[in-house]
């Protein structure tokens, strides 16, 4: 029996250590800040947001502990599996609109652009002195069949229906799947069968470079796509959206007036200029539906310039 503790066993270090700090935080120099910090109480966090769970890959049953997972897969399915390879997180129970931000259809739209960027990065890398790598990049660029093979291979790595890539736990699982795919020979053999003119070593080296570069390109293209969609959606304001904006503008004016009434007459005079006190009709007043519904005498009508 070894005298040393082996960390290669199935131990969840995050759950074991928790949030550990070597030193206690020093109190603030300000007595007022110390008093406010002591007065504020942190809200209790539900256990489901802290403790991970473990999903059985055979029957999809969710277990709360490592021992429960290992006992289940051994007794029910006769398998010896590592619980850390099948760990899920409470963030997986997010609404589908949030959880499926990167689904199969969106990944199929993002991947071709990301792949072309990765191929360009690899071919133009000054440290890539092997001409075979450059030739393979050109071959993949002109081969729709090979691009489709890479798409189907990388899709299960980045798209997982029970995970949310924004959480640290799911990022860890994503990089675990990426590492497993790098050491498996299936992709190298399949790729080499479509590109036999290059050696197996050069093919494997090229695929390793793709694994390293494709992650950043996928997230870059995903971010750019999200920004473009957000920009286009901002330009499309419905009538209900404008009614709400009209109400928020009036509420903002009232809140600023209450704040600066006693302190700054100069700022108050500027704020009052954004108030519409006229009895005439203009294009802004057609959006006063929420204003009329919520007003109890204190709301202000925003002027054209503020709205």
SSE arrangement, N to C: HHEEHEHHHHHHHHHH
- The count of strands amounts to 3
Q: Count every helix, treating DSSP H or I runs of 4 or more residues as helices.
A: 13
Helix content: 55-70%
Write down the domain tally. Answer: 3
Walk across the major sheet and give the strand order. 2-1-3
Q: Low-confidence stretches at least 5 residues in length (pLDDT < 50)? A: 20-40, 45-49, 91-100
What is the global morphology? elongated
How much is the average pLDDT?
Answer: 75
In what range is the share of β-strand residues? under 5%
Distance between the termini: 76 Å
Give an account of the 3D structure:
By secondary structure, this protein is mostly helical. It folds into three domains: 46-88, no CATH class; 97-234, no CATH class; 239-294. It is built from 13 helices and three strands; from the N terminus they run ααββαβαααααααααα. It has helices at residues 13-17, 31-39, 66-76, 96-99, 104-123, 131-141, 144-158, 168-183, 186-194, 200-234, 239-260, 265-272, 289-294, and strands at residues 53-55, 62-63, 87-88. A three-stranded antiparallel sheet has the order 2-1-3. β1 and β2 form a beta hairpin.
List the keywords.
single chain; 307 residues; mainly alpha; 3 domains; three-stranded antiparallel beta sheet; 3 strands; elongated; Znf_C2H2_type; C2H2-type domain-containing protein
Short description:
This protein is 56% helix and 2% strand. With 307 residues, it is mainly α. The protein is elongated, with a radius of gyration of 29 Å.
């Amino acid at each position: 029996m070894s005298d040393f503790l082996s960390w290669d066993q199935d131990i969840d270090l995050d759950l074991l250590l928790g949030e550990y700090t070597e030193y206690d935080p020093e109190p603030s120099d300000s007595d007022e800040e110390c008093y406010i910090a002591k007065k504020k109480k942190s809200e209790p966090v539900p256990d489901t947001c802290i403790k991970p769970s473990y999903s059985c890959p055979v029957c999809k049953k969710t277990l709360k502990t490592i021992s429960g997972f290992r006992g289940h897969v051994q007794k029910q399915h006769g398998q010896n599996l590592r619980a850390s390879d099948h760990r899920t997180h409470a963030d997986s129970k997010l609404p589908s609109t949030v959880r499926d931000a990167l689904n199969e259809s969106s990944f199929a739209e993002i991947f071709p652009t990301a792949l072309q960027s990765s191929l360009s990065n690899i071919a133009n890398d000054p440290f890539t002195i092997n001409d075979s790598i450059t030739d393979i990049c050109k071959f993949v660029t002109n081969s729709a069949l090979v691009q489709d093979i890479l798409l189907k291979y990388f899709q299960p790595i980045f798209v997982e229906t029970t995970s949310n890539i924004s959480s640290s736990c799911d990022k860890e699982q994503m990089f675990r799947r990426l590492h497993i795919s790098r050491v498996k020979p299936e992709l190298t053999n399949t790729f080499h069968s479509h590109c036999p003119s290059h050696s197996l070593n050069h093919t494997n080296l090229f695929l390793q470079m793709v694994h390293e570069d494709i992650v950043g390109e996928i997230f870059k293209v995903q971010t750019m796509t999200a920004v473009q969609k957000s920009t286009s959606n901002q330009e499309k304001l419905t009538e209900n959206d404008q009614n709400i904006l009209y109400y928020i503008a009036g509420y903002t004016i009232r809140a600023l007036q209450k704040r600066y009434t006693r302190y700054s007459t100069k700022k108050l005079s500027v704020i009052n200029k954004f108030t519409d006190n006229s009895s005439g009709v203009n294009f802004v007043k057609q959006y006063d539906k929420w204003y009329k519904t919520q007003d109890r005498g204190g709301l202000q009508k925003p002027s054209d310039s503020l709205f």
